[in-house]
Write a structure and sequence with these properties.
about 120 residues
């Protein structure tokens, strides 16, 4: 334990001395590392913002899904209601068509529902 603490103190002192030195251009040795760290920090912030946008979009989609499902259900109900509403009219048209075909059958004239519409 005593040697570990001694090594930590000497390592910190050597790092401090090394960081105070400058090269021929006046740059410190840690400057490229700082630039890399700043670039990494910037990219991490951009990634975090993109992640937040993705989470928000996912949340909005989840909020809209029940409304979309209700709309589809309502449309289906409307189609079914309309179908029930027009079924009697379609049946009447078919009956009239059959009756006219029987009446005109003697003359070889054929009437279809298309002719009645």
């Amino acid at each position: 334990m005593k040697h570990f603490l001694l090594g930590t103190v000497f390592g910190a002192a050597a790092g401090l001395v090394f960081s105070c030195m400058k090269d021929d251009e006046g740059n410190r040795p840690g400057k490229p590392l700082k630039d890399e760290f700043d670039a990494f920090k910037h990219e991490a912030n951009r990634f975090n913002q993109a992640l937040q946008k993705a989470k928000k979009a996912s949340q909005e989609l989840n909020e809209q899904m029940p409304q979309a499902e209700r709309t589809i259900s309502d449309l289906s109900d409307d189609v079914e209601k309309y179908s029930r509403h027009i079924d009697p009219t379609v049946d009447k048209i078919k009956q009239k068509s059959d009756q006219l075909n029987q009446d005109f059958g003697e003359n070889n004239i054929r009437v279809t529902a298309k002719h009645l519409l």
